[in-house]
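User: Show me a protein chain along with its predicted structure.
Assistant: Here is one chain, sequence first, then structure tokens.
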Amino acid sequence: MSVSACREQHSASVKRTDSVPTSIAVNLNDNSKISVFDIFSKISVIPLETESNSMIEKISKVIPYNNRFYILDRNQNAVLIFDSDGKFRKKIRKIGVGPGEYSLLYDFNINPFTKELELLNPKGELLSYTLDGEFIKSLRIPMRSASKFIPVTKDMIIFYTFFEEEKLHYYSRIQDKVIKKEFHFPETIHNTPLISSTSSPFSQNGNHITFFQGFTNDIYDIDSSGLRFRFRWDFGKHNMDYRNLPEGKEPMYYMALLRNGNMAHSFYSYQENQNIIMTRFIFDKQWVSLIYDKADKKSTVVKRFTEDVVLPAFPLLSEEGILGFTDPMEAHLLVNESVVDEPTRSVIANLKPEDNPILIRYYFKDQK
């Protein structure tokens, strides 16, 4: 079974969840100049407090919840908790083999049904903590190696793995077993950079969960019943069909092929709210952000704003705006003095290389 087979299987019974068409045409050659303020009313910066116990090596994931920021640092195998102003509160880092301890940490979520922090040890364990970081319990998972996960009902968790033939495993807490497996990688993409090993393939908007993959412009709905094709980004002559890639080449061959080609590829980010869809991918040797308005059915392609800044790599979309993050020495790529107010200019000017990463909030200009 390949993804092309998966595509045919799910296209026959599409479950419509909103007014998004089954194909969205996008003109990647539109060179219209776009200002930050065509989309956003303001941008603010939140420095994360830097002290000995709060140091972050690299942000892997951010979840804003109840006026706090929960931040995964996979390099440290830790989750750090900051308040809404960036003040450090607590660090969960319990390496070991005892209760509440783990060897590795690949992903985490805040379970919407239990309001508990759930941390994924890829070696077959899901650990639950309070929102203040106190250990509650652990759950053994009958999988060799889980990479990402998302709770979809009070009972069911969907796990995603790079290391088993079927990539999606549907696990029932009540039955304590995997009750369904599906989705295979096509052979042609195994040695390519088209799959991200760090970003999650799941995106959630309320109760609606989306599944996406870096090697295809197809988007799926996913829930406890399985995958269903939802829509496809259509870039016309710039569509890339992974099935046309030659097999058995070295990774550097595919990197050169993609770099020198003129195809849209590497869809590592997807976010959605009630009004818009955002995705990010590579086209014409650069990262491109795409914003699709569901009501107007119009797409805005953002390469670089006229203010000489770009959008963050892995934005977290809400109804009010987006949340991004960056290291202090790369902040100038996302914000500069022309897009922030005077107090924020001072914050940016005083950033030091040894400081923690910063969070950046972008507030939408028009909220529908």
